[in-house]
């Protein structure tokens, strides 16, 4: 919860943060470099990523060689130490085809790292670990701690002078526009994910929108100032309710933060106009009218990409049906992949154990990875201090429960792209850790430790409300350092 | 999997019994008999301590939920129910607070309705709260504020709608003194002042405004007028003043601070307006004075007049008679619900009058309806896990049965109401009779079912999704499109009360008929009808039935894989015996005619229940429901749930005298829900606040 006290901290941070360094085109570096921007973007796919669609042929063949048999799941892994393959053909994996170079697009294979074998069984698995995936703490009773993007967004080197500490958007099967089940500000404080592209656009680019949305944004300052005066007066008069006072103080702090943010955004007009994505109603037909989750995902990613390029934020989460039952979506645009070409309910799709069902899910993961690759290429195309924006941005693709619909959280396939200046060894490698239960198995929390090290807040023990559930502290040497 | 040596300490720490599968922790307990004149003792046991109290050896548990009380004071299901219904003259000590409006309240207060764009405002209740009325920690954090700013610009839209257009308000167009502001190019100072006060008090605060509040909004409005002096831009000015008003803390929060001199316990009585609006919100989720809306030409206006709805509550606030218990009683009786052939309460629901007229003639105030939806937890049926093969093991089959059921969830085809509304109507009828309400909730066989006449193959192109909508109730043939025909007394060997309603059965079930639906149903009964805790699933447990058993019945799967495992049975004994009776229905609520080669089996042996009258074998959910209906223990839990919802907090031992009072009101009136609410609204638990 934001209090007046920590607002002052935040606003001081905002006021004191200098402009990011000027353009210096250096080579990629293996260590985080002070002065370079640091960004993190997490794509969080709900209800499991099937490892089968992430294996490239060489990685699979190598692992099967260690195991002495075909690998059906991570339980078949036979190696005792991490298996690092320097340059496997990552783009030949079923879901990683978008890493390959295409017409006018660069290859991202050599900017990526495939990570297999990470576990998080203490999160419980099941349909979703909800807040657990990003907080690395079991969340059966609600968020047990802040999720990783929240922690990252509070790091001064990450936040910089961006107006938004973090942007959380996504798609999901929902009757409400907010998903409160994956991200958290703190213990017991869920952070909402915006599930409607229209709301995301308005929140981030309303200041440069045309029509009514733009006019309303322009007039917000007066409203905020009116409300700040009002809440100040009410606080002065309020007595006898500490509960009520906390609520008003929270509101006041929110208003002050919003006012500061809006002023900053209004000062970024040119930068925003330069990258503003298409807004609602600007095209005919209007893409915002689509109910297809993949169409909506594309719009959400457009907004995130533009927010990164314009400097609105340095931290983003893109949810693809993460948390609760948000994964239970139907995908009309994937109809050709569904069994018999018939789109079926989200739960039926994931429950089915046929090759066609799996193929549909593999395609879904492939589309999600392609969206992340699209962002990566846009960042790579923009030079900034240290090389390109991609050099200063780590993109992570992961699931929210592990390996499948009803998961045991034993295997969390991940794809990392970029972030070289933050120290990530995203050079086209694949790394596979020993299977869950093995002493050399490593956990998703180790990836988060690596991210915190790379972001400027060296942390060896992120998550794990119960330390006994931790296998090893620290970052992953095979991926960061 | 953990070793046996480590299991027992874990289970004990979690609060699960390890004495052979009963829920007892050592036999029936009794109160100490120090009741202040009323012997309300019911033998009881506790199923287990709250998971939030335990020192979970596995760690990683979140501490969530609203107690409504200072940290550390036991509340809710942690309390011993016997003691809670024993008045020892402890004073109720509710904390002074400001309550942030929720999204429904905001939507209605600004003159809009469900399914409108404004209903998509972000003022969601916190998901971890048991009831949406709880207020602990409800505050506008930066994320929510960012979204709210996208909604607040439309707060005054309804005040700008023309006098002949749908969506207009009586508050504006039937008030002659508002017209000058709408029509004059240069409204006088008095005109502006009147309109600003009108908006503030009948469009935002719903109570008298302070001079400071009025002056601030007046200055803001005058500034907006100066920048847009022509009458054509007046709607924009109204939107600006509305947005400003709805950014104010007074509009967003409802005060319950108390006023006057503290009593001997340091408590303040709620002020007249605070009390009046607390009652109004509790009953209707709206304030007295909420605008009367003409949603469409055909629909006409919602209830109310130029000063909005619930005028009698407004009057009682104005003249101070709201403090009179007799006045409170009359207001509750007037507004709690009843029979309305036009069902004007539905004007704020999705769709239009073609849908509304298919509902029954019984209605209940929105707050009351929401209580039952949230307590029984059937109000979000469409958001539950989708059901597959919905008629499996029932007497029915075919795609029309399948599709008709699915359409009963989402209501896409035709105009019949969905399952959740059908259960609303069933409950509303029981409340209208208002006798032995708790028992009738659990035993009534009068179900409001969907009509299928006019939806048959030769009558409509949508017949595949409508023709067999009544099959989920096991109703054969075609049901005529009249209210009388839709009301059907179902056979006594098929249904008994709300726990046998397809809406409840479906809401507490998973996708397949042999999924562990009985666990979900049993858990709900343990926690919400017996007011006992069930520990959270240990994080080391992979709670999943084997794939190899997918061809077996749920009973066989659970009994062989869970009940037979002492580790699992420790906690599942709290749930499974309460869920087995419901295996006479499948996951979607269809009555089974067979169950994987055998007859449907709803038998269960209930032992170690929290009160002796609940012990013993039952043959089915019908038998079980009748036993619950006759249980004083279960009835008291129902009263605790009502207390929680309508006071907006969890009960503590300080509320014991209120509990005794509402039980007495209920019993003395022959089981009147209305009398129970009247007693609650007139209690110290509802009417006083403790400043700090």
TrEMBL record, chain A:
PROSITE patterns: TAT (PS51318)
Lineage top rank: taxon: Bacteria
Pfam families: HXXSHH
Name of this protein: DUF1552 domain-containing protein
């Amino acid at each position: 919860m934001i209090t007046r006290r920590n607002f002052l901290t935040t606003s001081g941070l905002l006021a004191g943060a200098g402009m990011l360094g000027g353009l210096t085109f250096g080579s990629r570096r293996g260590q985080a470099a002070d002065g370079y921007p640091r960004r993190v973007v997490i794509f969080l796919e709900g209800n499991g990523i099937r490892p089968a669609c992430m294996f490239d042929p060489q990685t699979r063949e190598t692992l099967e060689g260690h195991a002495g048999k075909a690998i059906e799941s991570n339980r078949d892994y036979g190696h005792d130490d991490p298996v690092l393959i320097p340059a496997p053909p990552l783009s030949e994996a079923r879901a990683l085809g978008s890493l390959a170079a295409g017409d006018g697009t660069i290859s991202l294979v050599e900017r990526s790292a495939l990570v297999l074998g990470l576990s998080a069984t203490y999160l419980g698995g099941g349909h979703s670990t909800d807040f657990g995936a990003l907080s690395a703490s079991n969340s059966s009773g609600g968020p047990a701690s802040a999720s990783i993007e929240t922690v990252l967004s509070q790091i001064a080197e990450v936040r910089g002078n961006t107006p938004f500490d973090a942007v959380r958007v996504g798609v999901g099967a929902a009757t409400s526009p907010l998903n409160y089940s994956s991200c958290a500000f703190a213990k017991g404080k869920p952070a909402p994910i915006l599930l409607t592209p229209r709301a995301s656009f308005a929140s981030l680019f309303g200041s440069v929108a045309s029509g009514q949305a733009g006019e309303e944004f322009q007039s917000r300052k007066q409203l905020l100032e009116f409300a700040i005066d009002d809440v100040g007066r009410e606080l002065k008069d309020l007595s006898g309710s500490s509960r009520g006072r906390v609520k008003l103080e929270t509101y006041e702090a929110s208003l002050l933060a919003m006012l500061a943010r809006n002023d900053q955004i209004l000062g970024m007009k040119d930068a925003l106009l330069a990258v503003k994505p298409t807004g609602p109603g600007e095209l005919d037909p209007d893409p915002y009218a689509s109910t297809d989750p993949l169409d909506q995902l594309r719009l959400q990613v457009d907004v995130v990409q533009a927010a990164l390029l314009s400097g609105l934020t340095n931290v983003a989460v893109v949810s693809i049906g993460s948390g609760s039952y948000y994964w239970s979506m139907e995908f009309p645009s994937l109809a050709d992949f569904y069994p018999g070409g018939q789109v079926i309910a989200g739960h039926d799709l994931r429950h089915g154990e046929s090759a066609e069902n799996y193929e549909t899910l593999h395609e879904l993961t492939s589309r999600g990875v392609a969206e992340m690759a699209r962002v990566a290429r846009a960042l790579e195309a923009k030079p900034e201090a240290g090389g390109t924006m991609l050099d200063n941005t780590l993109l992570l693709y992961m699931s929210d429960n592990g390996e499948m619909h009803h998961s045991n959280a034993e295997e969390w396939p991940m794809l990392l792209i970029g972030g070289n200046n933050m120290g990530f060894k995203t050079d086209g490698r694949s790394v596979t850790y020993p299977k869950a239960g093995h002493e050399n198995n490593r956990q998703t929390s180790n990836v988060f430790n690596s991210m915190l090290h790379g972001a400027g807040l060296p942390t060896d023990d992120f998550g794990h409300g119960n330390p006994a559930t931790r296998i090893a502290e620290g970052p992953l040497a095979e991926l960061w350092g | 999997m953990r070793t046996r040596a480590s299991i027992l300490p874990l289970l004990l720490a979690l609060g699960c019994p390890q004495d052979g599968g009963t829920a007892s922790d050592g036999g029936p307990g009794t109160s100490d008999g120090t009741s202040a004149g009323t012997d309300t003792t019911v033998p009881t046991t506790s199923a287990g301590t709250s998971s939030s109290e335990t020192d979970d050896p596995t760690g990683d548990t979140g501490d969530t939920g609203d107690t409504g009380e200072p940290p550390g004071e036991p509340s809710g299901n942690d309390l011993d129910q016997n003691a809670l219904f024993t008045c020892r003259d402890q004073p109720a000590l509710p904390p002074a607070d400001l309550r942030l409006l929720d999204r429904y309240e905001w939507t209605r207060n600004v003159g809009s309705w469900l399914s409108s764009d404004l209903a998509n405002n972000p003022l969601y209740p916190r998901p971890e709260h048991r009831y949406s009325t709880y207020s602990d920690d409800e505050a506008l954090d930066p994320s929510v504020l960012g979204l709210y700013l996208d909604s607040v610009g439309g707060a005054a839209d309804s005040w700008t709608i023309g006098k002949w257009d749908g969506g207009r308000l009586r508050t504006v167009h039937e008030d002659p003194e508002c017209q000058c502001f709408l029509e004059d190019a240069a409204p006088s100072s008095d005109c502006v002042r009147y309109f600003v006060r009108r908006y503030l008090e009948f469009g935002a605060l719903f109570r008298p405004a302070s001079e400071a509040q009025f002056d601030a909004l007046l200055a803001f409005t005058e500034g907006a007028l100066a920048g847009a002096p022509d009458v054509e831009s007046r709607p924009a000015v109204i939107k600006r003043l509305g947005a400003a008003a709805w950014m104010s803390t007074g509009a967003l929060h409802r005060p319950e601070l108390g006023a006057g001199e503290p009593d001997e316990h340091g408590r303040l009585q709620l002020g007249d307006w605070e009390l009046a609006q607390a009652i109004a919100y509790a009953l209707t989720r709206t304030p007295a004075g909420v605008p009367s809306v003409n949603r469409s030409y055909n629909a006409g206006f919602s209830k109310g007049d130029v000063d909005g709805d619930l005028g009698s509550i407004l009057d009682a606030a104005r003249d101070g008679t709201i403090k009179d218990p007799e006045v409170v009683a009359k207001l509750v009786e007037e507004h709690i619900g009843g029979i309305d052939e036009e069902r004007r309460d539905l004007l704020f629901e999705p769709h239009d009058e073609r849908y509304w007229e298919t509902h029954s003639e019984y209605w209940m105030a929105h707050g009351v309806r929401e209580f039952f939806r949230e307590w029984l937890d059937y109000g979000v049926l469409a958001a539950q896990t989708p059901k597959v093969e919905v008629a499996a093991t029932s007497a029915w089959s075919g795609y029309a049965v399948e599709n008709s059921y699915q359409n009963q969830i989402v209501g896409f085809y035709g105009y019949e109401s969905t399952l959740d509304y059908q259960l609303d109507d069933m409950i509303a009828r029981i409340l209208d009779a208002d006798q032995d309400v708790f028992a009738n909730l659990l035993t009534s066989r009068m179900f409001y079912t969907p009509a299928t006449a006019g939806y048959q193959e030769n009558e409509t192109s949508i017949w595949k999704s409508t023709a067999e909508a009544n099959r989920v109730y096991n109703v054969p043939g075609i049901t005529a499109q009249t209210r009388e025909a839709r009301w059907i007394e179902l056979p006594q060997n098929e249904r008994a009360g709300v726990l046998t309603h397809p809406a409840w059965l479906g809401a507490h079930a998973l996708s397949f008929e042999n999924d562990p639906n009985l666990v979900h149903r049993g858990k709900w009964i343990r926690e919400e009808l017996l007011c006992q805790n069930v520990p959270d699933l240990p994080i080391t447990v992979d709670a999943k039935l084997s794939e190899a058993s997918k061809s077996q019945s749920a009973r066989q799967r659970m009994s062989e894989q869970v009940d037979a495992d002492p580790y699992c049975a420790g906690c599942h004994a709290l749930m499974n015996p309460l869920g087995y009776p419901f295996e006479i229905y499948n996951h979607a609520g269809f009555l089974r005619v067979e169950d994987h080669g055998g007859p449907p089996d709803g038998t269960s042996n209930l032992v170690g229940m929290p009160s002796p009258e609940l012990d013993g074998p039952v043959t089915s959910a019908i038998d079980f429901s009748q036993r619950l209906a006759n249980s004083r223990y279960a009835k008291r839990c129902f009263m605790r749930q009502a207390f929680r919802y309508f006071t907006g907090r969890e009960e503590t031992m300080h509320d014991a005298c209120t509990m005794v009072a509402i039980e007495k009101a209920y019993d003395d009136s022959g089981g009147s829900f209305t009398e129970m609410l009247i007693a609650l609204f007139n209690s110290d638990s509802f009417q006083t606040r403790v400043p700090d």
